[in-house]
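Q: How would the structure tokens look for this protein?
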Amino acid sequence: MSAAPKDPDLGYAAHTKSSRGAIEVELSGNIEWDDPSVFAHLGVHDVDADFVNAARMLFAQDTKLQSAKLELIRIAADSSKQETAMYPHLGLIFAFIELLQDKYGNSARVRFSQSSNMRLIIETSDSWDYPSNKPDFSTILAELFESPTNRWRDRRGWCEVKAHASDRPKSDRGTRPKEIVVQTADYARLHMSGRPFQLFSVGLLIYGDEFCVGIYDRAGVRYSPSHNIWKDFDIFIRVVRSITTDMTPEELGEDPTVVTLTDASRDMWFARLDANRLPVEERDEPVYEVSLGGTTDDTDDGLWVTIGTPIWISLSLFGRGTLVWRVRNKATLDLRVMKNAWHSGARTSESEIYQLIEGQHPGVARFDVGADVKFPGTELIISTSSLRSSGRANSAKHAILHRVFIYPIGRSLYRARSELELVKGMRAALRGHEFLCNQYILHRDISVGNIMLSSEDDPPEGAEGFLMDLELARCSGPRVEYTVIAPVRTPTGQILNDVQVRHSRWDTHLTKRGAPMTGTLQFMAVVLLESLEERVWNEQNAVGPPMEHKVHHDIESFIWVLIYSLMRRIIVVEASKVNDADKHLVGQLTTLKTRFIRYFGRSTPSGILGQRGGAKPWNFVQYHPEFFSEPIRDLIDNLDRQFRVRKEEPFTHAAVLGALDAAIRRLS
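A: Here is the predicted structure in token form.
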């Protein structure tokens, strides 16, 4: 079917949406105004004074530039004017500052390109459900200026324009964030999601005849003092010149532990894979070499090379910013899944949680290596604290970059080749969840991005799928520890050396827990959503402690993931098999897609709860019998009955596993 979306596994379609309403809430208490550290980071005062003086004099002598200045002043004074009228004049001034050479012959490395007339995307395969928000200008490499792409990954920074000074970000009333603050934070999250491994986002804000610079990271936003463009034209020159010419890629937010392979290096890497008869996917995509940083491992054993495009990315600014990618070890060529995410300084890292697991289970991903990421050549951890040179990294106010490598390699649930494969994968992961719960480890973030199908064509029973991403897990049980005791003599006189003793230590604070209630909203248990909604409505009044996240809440999340995956599988896999001439099926597919977006496209507790009531989330299989078999329809009906009595009889592993077993027997 021609209108079907492309394969999302080749791009970023599996993202978690974050609405501007949610961003507004997250911004509260996380904005720093008039922060001198912003200009210090930009190196504004390090711009060569001779260059600034020359630029100011040439600007005053150029009639076209003076005309542009007068037009901008007129627009700022006219309340009826829109920012679009400012674009050509600002573009002319940007180009003047960028292209002017300094005494060493240097000109801009990146340039401000108007981007308001194009839809910036992360990947073409994700354009069917991807936010279309874009800034007025964005910075791209100078060599791309004449023919810019529409990819966020090619943007180094951005500029938002408003026509009037009243649109300045700082409010005199000090109440909720103004529109420009929320709007630019939205751009920053798209920039940091669309440009892999971006640590923070630098944006220039122009409002009428005033401007400031914002630096957006995982802990919030810092704004420089506001200046008048014409009264402080020297500062404006310095800011534009810093962003476009003087700042290094790392100073603009690139991760120093990641290197983009050159064309020659990429070709050599692909040739090595070919020589080892390993598949090479998406040869035209950028390839990144990733490490954990630090001082201890600079060999190929500590380097990992990405494969194609990410299989999961979270579109969040102040959340974890999760990025999941298939990678190969540069030395061994071992295949792994790399998870790149930020965790609260007050929480235990994911690597530590994986290492608490006793034994292995085919339904749980296995840990290879991982750690908090450090700046190369140092022992300094990359965190919002170290990036800002302020505060303590282990504070709840700051976020720490963590990278973990796990195996086996999986596929997205909704890429299942059949209903049977999907249900078997869900069952295997739920069994893995039960295995963890028996060790007092509660996952607390069951979502479509954290359950994977096996990549094997014929996996053994119980290994058809697996659970991953233990970052938000809580461990509340005994910790098993092993110690080696001194040599001992047995009653027979035998000397035993290196005797290992296993013992348990009960520690209710085994992991730093963070929030009592966690998870991805779209898959969160209804009662947790109701508790969140109550707290939103009673923000100013005490409503008691938040509801504790329990085992049966996780099990309910498995069910929402199953429903999501069943629906999305039809949209992204089976849709290609629908003949355009079959008007009935085309219409049914369109209706299913609309229903899917309605059920899972909401991003607030109230919006999601509105789609969880009555028969809404369960009747999709009855409305679309063309796409779902009778065993699947009966499975959803069984789970619906369990859902309706969940308050009296909370979900259990046994009950849901029994329903999945019954469906598997009928589908086999």
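The chain has a mean pLDDT of 87.

The longest helix spans residues 551-572.

Upvote if useful.
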